[in-house]
Amino acid sequence: MKTIFAAVALSLVALPSVAQDIEVREAFARATLPNAPVAGGYLTVANHGDRDDRLTGARADFAGEAQIHEMTHSGDVMRMRELPDGVAIPAGQEVHLSTGSNHLMFMRLNRGLVQGDTVTVTLTFEKAGDIDVPFIVGPINARSFDDDGSGRTAPADHGGHSH
Amino acid sequence: MTATARSSALYRAVWRWHFYAGLIVLPFVILIAVTGAIYLFKDEINDAAYGDLRLVPAQEVPALPPSAITAAALGMHPGVLRGYSPPATRDRAAQVKIAGEDGLKDTVYVDPYTGVVIGTAWDSGVSGSTAMWVVRKLHSLEYAGWIGNRIIEAVAGWMVLLVATGIYLWLPRGRNVGTFRPRKGAKGRPWWRDLHAATGIYVAGFIVFLAMTGLPWSGVWGKQFYDLSYAAGLGMPDGYWNDVPLSTVPMAEALDRAPWIAEHQPMPMSQPTGGIPAALDDVVRKVEALGIHPGYDLAIPGDATGVFTASVYPDDIAQERVIHLDQYSGEVLFDMDLSGLGTLGRLAEWGVSIHMGQAFGLANQIVLLIACAAMVLMCVSGAVIWWKRRPAGSLGAPAVPADWTIPRGILIIAVLLGIFFPLVGFSMLAIAAIELGLTATRRLRTA
């Protein structure tokens, strides 16, 4: 299972979605629990061109709506809000939308996301236009594209439980 | 000794004790009054400071089912589900308690209409925010640990003694002093003295009430109170707080069919990221059908024999309720409201509710806020009178009488109070020892 997952991952890394100057890679979503109305999407966007661009939106057939959300921390409080203007992708830079910061929020899911599946998400950029990107569905607690969810940082309650 | 001399000796003894006790507890009383005044308004403060987490735009559409809300929370904040608090009103966020992968328990705020996670915060329990948690821990001085908590308990007892001795000193004796307001034309120390006396007589009842209703929380007095009232059958019945019933793990049934909650369990709850008991929606439906007051918390079973526990302590304490359900059968194992408690348990809950400014709503909060302000004024005026009469470079305590004739009645009252408030008793013994020591030293010196 792990090998297949890695192979799929490798093939996707090897074949990044490139449209003009924008490259999207390591795109993944977290699997959902039954009945979950929302899911998070995470990716890395590289701007190889020499003009600034902006990720302004996303859509997918499995979600009624997709928003770009920011995550801010102050003390012990974390807040998540929609970024109506999206995320700037400056020329020559890489921008990460990750589990601990800005991310995509898929809402009004019409079906659950199953670990191991690949789903297609259409990303909209201000200059580069629409790009279809395959998102790997990782474990429900995946923190990164290649996280197998084995709980490297298992909660204290389950200390001693090794995989 | 004449009657006048005896009464004057008693007056001086009471004054001295009022002086020592007041000076020692003064900083703590200010702490209790200020933190208490803030905590009275914790809900309002939390809504103002964390409204962006706690409040959502009310919508006409029905809210998502609890299973969807908790699934959304676990998706954005992986961990083990520990509790679920449905929104109390249509403009509030649902709160999902999750033990995260970092081992910390967090509250995840979810928009109940969209399932969007608005934010997370460290789970501060009933305080509702970290800031209010700190205020609460300062109020009980648990912030400073076991010792701090014992000090506050002693202070509560001493406050009752301060009121008693204060009233004795206040009693009009035909002197030209202010009783219900500062005497006319008073300035300087006499004005402060009158302010202290007059404020004190108005706020005396509130101080005693707040001290007595605060004591059920305390480590020594409170524990004794609950143990004794339980033993007398007048306290909290089994299952309300302690001796929570256990779910009976259906061993025989588990062999051929999955337990009730696990039937549709997406993954075992022992996984690093647990699932949601599939029956969460059923449990919520069940306790709401039983008429539980909105704003309740639902605790998720933590192990194989754990139970679902729905509990609510609303402003209207008649609506206080605790329900335990078997996690496998969904059967209601325990369901009790205030009327099921013993007389003393009910009295304590009622007292606590007023103490926290809940029972009578805003009027309750404002009256107690004024009482807190008056207590700070008592401390300030008390300190000013002492400072103004204090001879330069000395403590200025009332003189220890050479002759220790305390009427037997007073001594008996002191002993009884010392037994009733054990921590006051201990501190009284300590102060008495110091006084005896001082007297002995002086006798040696004058001899």
Structure, explained:
The complex is a heterodimer of chains A (163) and B (447). Chain A has 163 residues and is mostly beta strands. Chain A has a single domain (2-142), classed as Immunoglobulin-like. Helices cover 8% and strands 48% of the residues of chain A. Chain A contains one helix and eleven strands, in the order αβββββββββββ. Chain A has one helix at 2-14, and strands at 17-19, 22-30, 39-47, 53-60, 63-74, 77-82, 87-89, 94-97, 103-109, 118-125, 129-138. In chain A, strands 1, 2, 3, 4, 5, 6, 7, 8, 9, 10 and 11 form an eleven-stranded mixed sheet that branches. In chain A, strand 10 and strand 11 form a beta hairpin. The longest helix of chain A is centred in the first third of the chain and has 13 residues, at 2-14. Chain A starts with a helix and ends in a 25-residue tail after the last strand. By secondary structure, chain B is an alpha+beta fold. Chain B folds into three domains: 3-41 and 137-221 and 363-446, no CATH class; 51-128, Nuclear Transport Factor 2, Chain: A (Roll); 237-340, no CATH class. Helix content of chain B is 51%, strand content 11%. In chain B, strands 4-3-2-1-5-6-7-8 form an eight-stranded antiparallel sheet. In chain B, a hairpin with a 6-residue loop joins strand 3 and strand 4. In chain B, helix 1 packs antiparallel against helix 5, helix 6 crosses helix 7 (188-214) and helix 7 (188-214) packs across helix 12. Mean pLDDT of chain B is 83; it is low at 250-274. Classes of the chains: A mainly beta (163), B alpha+beta (447). At the A-B interface, strand 6 and strand 9 of A face helix 4 and strand 4 of B.
